[in-house]
Amino acid sequence: MYSTVVSASISGIESRKVLVEADVSDGLPTFGLVGFLASETREAAERVRTALRNSGVRLSPQHVTVNLAPASFHKEGAIFDLAIAIALMGGYGFFPRQALEGILLLGELNLNGKITPVRGVLEIVSHAREYGCTTVIVPLENLAEGSVIGGVTVLGASNLNQVIHFLAGRSRGSVYPMEESSYEPPLIAPDDLYTMKVDVDMLRRQQMESLNIDFSQIRGQELMKRAAEIAVSGFHNLLMIGPPGAGKSMTAKCIATILPETSTQEALEITKIHSIAGTLPKETGLLTTRPFRAPHHTVTAPALCGGGNPPGPGEISLANRGVLYLDEMPEFSRPVLEMLRGPLEEGSIQISRVSGTYTFPANFMLIAAMNPCPCGYFPDRTRCTCTNAQVRHYLSRISMPLLDRIDMCVEAKRVKFEELTSHCGGESSARIRERVTAAHAIQKERYRTAGYRFNSDLDAEAVRKYCALDAEGEKMMRHVYETLHLTARSYNRILKTARTIADLAASCRIGTDHLAEAISYRAVDRKYWDDALRSA
Known about the structure:
Blueprint: E1 2-11, E2 14-25, E3 30-34, H1 39-42, H2 44-54, E4 57-58, E5 63-69, H3 81-91, E6 103-105, E7 108-109, E8 115-116, H4 121-125, E9 135-139, H5 143-146, E10 153-157, H6 160-170, E11 182-183, H7 200-209, H8 222-234, E12 238-241, H9 248-254, H10 264-277, E13 292-293, H11 301-305, H12 315-318, E14 323-327, H13 334-338, H14 341-346, E15 348-353, E16 356-361, E17 365-370, H15 388-395, H16 400-403, E18 408-411, H17 417-420, H18 429-446, H19 460-466, H20 471-483, H21 488-504, H22 512-534
Parallel strand pairs: 3-5, 6-9, 9-10, 12-17, 12-18, 13-14, 14-17
Antiparallel strand pairs: 1-2, 2-5, 4-11, 7-8, 15-16
């Protein structure tokens, strides 16, 4: 007898439909599993047979062939276990064909019949209707993320008997095994499958409350806090440079508290990537806050940019729509840092393998912090103990092409004693976030029909349209372009930063004061790198 059920797999970050076919016939008793499978997927044969037996299903010896179609792409993981088990029971005649129509099955099976969680459920459920399915059965621990998607019924199961009980109900209350096969229901009838309704507003409140840091805790460093506000308002890349203990790391962590609220589409995109990577917090159906990723400086290229076998998203993709924070940036391997150049421009990264080319999103805001030299006190020669060669070598770990892709660079000064001991706290994150949100609202309205989200997204043509200068501004930029030896890229980035500063001031035009502030954030990097070259 032939039976088929629908399942799905993840390829890169995209869902692909998989048809699980089971054929049970007379002949030499065997169990063949085919369809271009990885070793862990082939092992499903033993897992499924044992799980069925321990769930009370007795199968007569038959010639069994299970195919995972199409065979044109590699199937990996144990996500097909549940679908294979139900397709096999259908092949043995336990369920009529109509009982399995319109159902998509996902889940790994333990030997005792328990269904364990799998990755990528959100992405797969979002495509269920495309696969002709109106009901999706997922592991109970994946129910929260699956239930975020509307227009399809998502049910959670903790064990195989629950699924059998549910399908038996669709079969008018009973199962119909072939001769010599049987199903022994558990002594206690299994619970019905679970459903869940996700309250997005409640999730937003809970996830925001989990951030236990605030800008008001930072003493002094008003310029650095101002730069952080501008960077978040336009999603600009920011480099903070200064001596150790000046508050660079704390400022970077506080940025998470002023990031703008995600749209529903952005929240789904963020959650999908973390679900596929296996980094979605347990029982979290939807990530409503923007990610803040801070990899250690020993991170490898595949871990940062994505890769592996099978290729999976790296830190830059996990930071998509949020922040990638690199603390002590020169300590990262230079080849690893250079891999950021493409994603910072394109907003995505392509990983090429023999099996195909995989594209991962990488639309993130880069926040980096560094000391100006190994000891941390250059160019203050009264405290710096590094030689000129050491300073030059340290700063050269960050190439000029990479530095050119960073919109803003701000200097962190040593905190004064009066500032450190002051009882007057600075502005709270909530107050700063109000201004950030207002600036984002201006950008959203401005680019409503243009397809951009933030000022940092503008290409060269859009910069000319939306960041136009008056005659005085043109004169200022001409002088700065020649004096600082700017590139076309850094010129455009200054204009985009000035546009954000004007938005924070609720100004429809870019004034010379906005332009001057944006230019000041490009002069700091020239100060350190040019000083290092002159002292060489």
